Amino acid sequence: MDFLTSPVRYLKKKQPIYQISTLQSLIMGNYYGATTVEQLLRFGDIGLGMFHAADGELILLNHRCYRILGDGSARLAAMEDRVTFASVSFLEEGDTISLGAMESLDALRGLLDERVELLGANNLYIVRVDGVFHRVAARTELKQEPPFKKFAEVLAKDERRFVFENISGSLVCFYFPQYLEGVNTAGWHFHFLDDACTCGGHVFDIEMERGKALLNKTDRFVMDLPHNQEFQDAALENASKDEIRQIEQGGK
Amino acid sequence: MDFLTSPVRYLKKKQPIYQISTLQSLIMGNYYGATTVEQLLRFGDIGLGMFHAADGELILLNHRCYRILGDGSARLAAMEDRVTFASVSFLEEGDTISLGAMESLDALRGLLDERVELLGANNLYIVRVDGVFHRVAARTELKQEPPFKKFAEVLAKDERRFVFENISGSLVCFYFPQYLEGVNTAGWHFHFLDDACTCGGHVFDIEMERGKALLNKTDRFVMDLPHNQEFQDAALENASKDEIRQIEQGGK
Question: Is A177's Cβ below 8 Å from some Cβ in B?
Answer without folding.
Answer: yes
